[in-house]
Specification:
The protein is mainly α and 148 residues long. The chain contains 5 helices and no strands. Helix 3 packs across helix 5 and helix 4 packs antiparallel against helix 5. It is globular.
Length: 148
């Protein structure tokens, strides 16, 4: 009889757990009617949105990148789409919180943060893949061969 446990599917999706926990924190914070002002200047709320969702974008790219390792563009696209859906759902959720409202400019700031983080993470990943690690050496038989 085949093993019907849920371990393999859960293990496959487990790299996304940090992003889900992070988003749960965002959701809990947006459930509050009033948030303490961390900084206060013009557009400071948009900066906070961008930085917060940059964290989510980085975690999503890392998570999707773990099981789409051979397809980094697909991982980046999945991270951007999932982060954008999260940003929109967060604003819809805020429509139902007393003293809060939904703002399309908040979603725009969220998307800027997600795009910046995913772009930076993708760049760092490509750079890391191009730089040979310290433990790799050239073959003695072909001293002019590039590092692998």
């Amino acid at each position: 009889m085949p093993d019907m446990s849920l371990r393999p599917p859960l293990r496959r999706w487990s790299p996304l757990v940090p992003a889900v926990v992070y988003y749960a924190g965002i959701y809990l914070l947006s459930s509050r009617s009033r948030l303490p002002a961390v900084v206060s200047f013009r557009f400071s709320d948009k900066l906070i949105h961008a930085l917060t969702f940059a964290g989510l974008g980085a975690l999503l790219f890392w998570g999707f990148g773990r099981f789409l390792a051979e397809r980094p563009k697909a991982a980046a696209l999945a991270a951007i789409l999932a982060g954008t859906v999260g940003a929109v759902l967060d604003e819809v959720h805020q429509m139902f919180v007393p003293l809060r409202n939904a703002d399309v400019w908040d979603v725009a700031a969220d998307l800027i943060g997600i795009l910046a983080a995913v772009g930076a993470a993708a760049y760092l990943r490509r750079r890391r893949e191009r730089i040979p690690s310290a433990g790799r050496t050239r073959r003695v038989s072909d001293p002019g061969a590039p590092d692998r």
